[in-house]
Specification:
Distance between the termini: 29 Å
CATH superfamily of the largest domain: Ribosomal protein S4/S9, N-terminal domain
Helix content: 25-40%
CATH topology of the largest domain: Ribosomal Protein S4 Delta 41, Chain A, domain 1
Number of strands: 5
Largest sheet: 5 strands, antiparallel
């Protein structure tokens, strides 16, 4: 399965904002954006060209792809699926990305980053409605319960993440069930509940050319 395996802090620096790709490090002073908020590379400081049109649309797409950890072909399929649905395409696109199992695991607080959530899911630590789920791209639905496997409820990474999430909170469209070591999808997320500083309409414009 194709995935990005390079340095992730340079992705944040390229986008000029925190993408929260390294979990706790992103909240600390060690964060690359805090230390040097310039594009990576030898000539990073010299990149001062103002983006417009296609360049602006491309950067917005790259930013969203990197936040959720998906590559181009998969991202394009999400867009095409959102385009076929009735509603606002950009908002439906973000909704589908938010409903990925690895993102839900991260949002509930069972992992400190989406990359860690993806790995934990692949290793079979979670269930959906009591059934083993090990595909990070699975889409959850309203009313689903995402739980930690019984054998994994004392996993050090999961327990640490649960403590860490207390500082960042859980989105309104999810609820944490501590007695079951699980989370419930209360509703599908609305755009107002997806706290991302992105302009999804630029992505729609890019793919509509």
């Amino acid at each position: 399965m194709a995935r990005y395996i390079g340095a992730v802090c340079r992705l944040c620096r390229r986008e000029g904002m925190k993408l929260f790709l390294k979990g706790e490090r992103c909240y600390a002073e060690k964060c690359a954006i805090e230390k040097r908020n310039t594009p990576p590379g030898q000539h990073g400081k010299a990149r001062k060209a103002k983006l417009a049109g296609y360049g602006l649309q491309l950067r917005e797409k790259q930013r969203v792809k990197r936040i959720y950890g998906v590559l181009e072909n998969q991202f394009r399929r999400y867009f095409e699926a959102a385009e076929r649905q009735r509603g606002i395409t950009g908002e439906l696109l973000l909704q589908k990305l938010e409903c990925r199992l690895d993102n839900v695991v991260y949002r509930i607080g069972f992992a400190t980053s989406r990359a860690q959530a993806r790995q934990l899911v692949r290793h079979g630590h979670f269930t959906i409605n009591g059934k083993r789920a090990d595909i990070p791209s699975m889409l959850v639905r309203e009313g689903d319960i995402v739980g930690v496997q019984a054998r994994s409820q004392k996993n050090a990474h999961v327990l640490h993440a649960i403590e860490e999430v207390k500082g960042r909170g859980i989105p309104e469209w999810l609820s944490f069930l501590p007695e079951q070591m699980a989370g419930r999808i209360v509703s599908l997320p609305s755009r107002a509940q997806i706290n991302l500083p992105v302009q999804e309409q630029l992505i729609v414009e890019l793919y509509s050319k």
